[in-house]
Write a structure and sequence with these properties.
Number of strands: 12
Helix content: 55-70%
Structural class: alpha/beta
CATH architecture of one domain: 3-Layer(aba) Sandwich
CATH topology of one domain: Rossmann fold
Distance between the termini: 29 Å
CATH class of one domain: Alpha Beta
Strand order of the largest sheet: 5-12-11-6-10-7-9-8
Length: about 750
């Protein structure tokens, strides 16, 4: 038995409240450290993304064909000296912004570019017309292979119908023009009247020739336009003056003929019709007012009757003599009825008779009201007919008035047309005389400011800029990829993270064995390595883990411990066996129980003979002493599992298992149970309720946070006493990239290098 020492154990688990006072002071430093650790652990990925991006940009840049840009400039709207102080047919361009912008668009017109194409013979230049380019050897080989394949499969391309030469030439010219337009840039230099013409080509001489030719063709085009416009203006004015002379003569003849046709009526002979229209308008207004009045009376009477109002509330009824007379009769009958009812019962003949008379008077009043409604409806109908009649008469009068005035309107139109023709004829005649006096316009409205020199260096691609952008893009993509991978990282990496996710203490770690990737497939078995290297960091980790478990509860020493994991292959079984060996080597009488009925891994890695074991003892088939085997190297007792085809469903919930635990506690100082994955097996959850402490294994960088949260939730639901969480398979070389460590890997290696 071990001695018990009085220890002052802090009430909280590591990194608990004792460090809370310093967390705020180191918060900013910790944030920087977290960023640096994230960069270190993703460094290979970040470098790869950066290098790939930069290399892609560099390869793309160096494969581009160099292009050269030459720039010429012209000045638009220079001051002109007018020979004749008149509004010329083609005058100098005004010096305003809209004009300069318009001329910039003219420089990009297809008609002007077509002249440039013809002057430089760009149709036969492969740069602008790929159809005349000599195919490369690779293109020739590809074409030959395609032809060979088509001949093998029997595909023969139908011969294309010959295209008319004119259409083919136009299509070729349009393609070259589009290519040239894609290689030139026309820009105004600030708020000045200078327009810059930039041309780009793979040949520096061609770039300069193209820019200078566009400027020269632009000036020549202005001169040609002026000469042709002047000539066309003279021809057009001559023919137009003759036409206007004939139009004036015809217009004056029509005016005189119309005056003769109208005679005295031209001064206006429709006064009577106008008076008639005014009278009919007045009568129509009165008739419409009467119709509205009658209609309102009818609507009011119908409304009062529909609402069941008293006759006293109906003005039309009060104005009827018949209804007034009937109301008097009704009043007399009502008075008599009251007297008779005061003397006799309702069944008396006189009372019955007077009631009959009363009903008859009411029917007469109702009939009289209905006759009043019919009378008003007839009045409304008559008023409506009168309105319609007056409207038709008014429309007829207006039509006659319009027809009568049409003659005067036509005459006025003829006089205006004749006057307009005379004015237009006079203006064109004066313009024709002035145009004939002009000697022609010999100066263009622009001049060349500077010719384009042959460029000495390419303008495209800008290698240094592209490489700088590639580096910036590489850094941005690397940062983005690093951020995404860091945000998607859902695996447990550090003690702080374990405690935050699990809500339980972090009680230790099991380092990864040298030159191996896991426990079960290592060249050296973990349990053997523990014996061969008793002073190694691997062995020290189990000493710390044993101490953490033993003192997890200072009020009660842990005697029964269940080692659980969320999923298979998290190092639970190897850790259980190594922990048991370390406890046995420390002098603690220890037994480990293989509680994973399905896989029996503890039995396999310990090499214990399994003729009888836990199940046989629980079923009463053997004695406990016969089922327990002893590890000869450490003195560790092992209760294995046999390979039984039939596995009972409720082994650990039985009374036999409870009795076994009570019996073992009387004999052993420490009982460690290797269980199955708690998320997969129900019996593991039962075991956790019956032990003093539960140790949860989580594989470093393999177990994700959600699985650990689910495991801890199950343990809380079963009221398990969790000692803490252990990280397994921890790579000491990479651990510093994920969490703060008091000493780095080199320091550990230096300390344990001789072990």
């Amino acid at each position: 038995m071990n001695k018990v020492y009085s220890l002052d154990v802090p009430p909280a688990y590591p990194r608990g409240a004792s460090q809370a006072h310093s967390s705020l002071e180191n918060e900013s430093v910790a944030a920087v450290h977290r960023v640096l650790r994230a960069v270190r652990r993703r460094l290979s990925l970040l470098v790869a993304v950066f290098l790939l991006t930069f290399a892609a940009v560099a390869v793309f840049t160096f494969q581009l064909t160099p292009r050269y840009t030459a720039t010429a400039s012209v000045i638009v709207a220079t001051p002109k000296q007018k020979v004749v102080d008149i509004s010329a047919v083609l005058q100098g361009l005004p010096a305003d912004t809209a004009t300069v912008d318009t001329e910039a668009e003219v420089l990009k017109s297809r008609s002007l570019i077509a002249k440039v194409v013809k002057r430089l013979d760009l149709i036969h230049n492969p740069e602008f017309n790929p159809a005349v380019a000599e195919p490369s050897p690779m293109q020739k080989r590809i074409k030959a292979i395609k032809g060979f394949i088509k001949s093998l499969v029997g595909i023969h391309k139908a011969e294309a119908k010959p295209v008319a030469n004119a259409a083919a030439e136009k299509a070729t010219l349009d393609g070259v023009i589009n290519a040239v337009l894609g290689r030139i840039s026309i820009n105004r230099r600030g708020p000045t009247y200078v327009i810059e013409i930039s041309a780009t080509s793979e040949n520096p001489q061609m770039a300069a020739d193209l820019a200078n030719t566009i400027a020269d063709v632009y000036l020549n085009n202005q001169l040609d336009t002026k000469f042709q416009a002047t000539r066309r203006a003279q021809e057009w004015l001559d023919s137009r003056v003759s036409e206007l002379r004939e139009e004036v003569s015809n217009a004056e003849s029509k005016v005189e003929a119309r005056r003769v046709q109208l005679g005295a009526l031209a001064a206006g002979g429709t006064t009577l019709l106008e008076q008639a229209v005014r009278d009919l308008n007045a009568q129509l207004s009165v008739a419409q007012g009467d119709y509205s009045t009658e209609r309102a009376k009818l609507d009011n009477l119908n409304t009062q009757l529909k609402e069941g109002k008293s006759i006293d509330a109906i003005p039309e009824a009060l104005a009827s003599a018949s209804i007034l007379e009937l109301r008097k009769q009704a009043a007399d009958i009502a008075r008599k009825k009251a007297d008779l009812q005061a003397k006799y019962f309702d069944t008396h003949p006189d009372v019955v008779r007077i009631k009959s008379e009363e009903e008859d008077v009411k029917r007469q009043i109702a009939a009289e009201l209905q006759r009043l409604v019919s009378s008003l409806e007839q009045n409304v109908t008559i008023a409506k007919v009168r309105v319609d009649t007056l409207q038709r008469r008014l429309d007829s009068a207006k039509a006659e008035l319009a027809q009568s005035n049409r003659g005067s309107v036509e005459l006025n139109d003829l006089e205006r047309d004749a006057e307009a023709s005379r004015q237009l004829y006079k203006e064109f005649l004066d313009r024709f005389k002035q145009t004939n006096e002009l000697e022609g316009i010999t100066d263009a409205d622009a001049l060349i400011n500077s010719e384009a020199p042959v460029p000495g260096s390419p303008s495209f691609p800008r290698t240094s800029l592209n490489l700088a952008l590639g580096a910036m893009l590489g850094l941005a993509l690397a940062a983005f990829v690093g951020l995404i991978t860091e945000l998607l990282d859902n695996y447990l990496s550090s003690p702080e993270e374990v405690e935050r996710v699990a809500g339980a203490p972090y009680i230790g770690q099991v380092p990864l064995l040298p030159a191996t990737g896991n426990f079960t497939k290592a060249k050296i078995k973990p349990a053997e390595y523990l014996l061969e290297k008793p002073h190694s960091g691997f062995a020290e980790a189990f000493r710390n883990l044993r101490a953490s478990i033993m003192f997890a509860d200072i009020d009660k020493a842990a005697k029964t411990v269940a080692v659980v994991s969320s999923m298979p292959d998290e190092g639970k079984t190897s850790m259980t066996y190594c922990l048991g060996r370390m406890a046995a080597m420390s002098g603690t009488k220890t037994i480990v129980i293989d509680g994973d009925i399905r896989r029996r891994q503890l039995t396999e890695i310990s090499g214990a003979p399994a003729e009888v074991g836990l199940l046989e003892y629980l079923f009463g088939e053997t004695r406990l002493a016969d089922a327990i085997t002893v590890d000869e190297k450490t003195g560790l007792h092992i209760l294995p599992l046999t390979d039984r085809k039939h596995t009972p469903r409720d082994v650990f919930g039985s009374r036999a298992f409870d009795a076994l635990l009570n019996m073992l506690q009387q004999t052993y100082d420490l009982i460690i149970i290797d269980t199955g994955p708690i998320l997969l097996l129900a019996e593991t959850r039962v075991v956790t309720r019956k032990v003093d402490q539960v140790v949860v294994c989580a594989r470093w960088r393999k177990t994700n946070r959600g699985i650990l949260r689910e495991t801890m939730k199950i343990l809380r639901d079963f009221n398990a006493n969790v000692a803490g969480v252990v990280l397994t398979f921890v790579d000491q070389r990479k651990r510093a990239h994920y969490a703060y460590a008091a000493a780095n890997y080199k320091a550990y290696a230096q300390y344990y290098k001789n072990d």
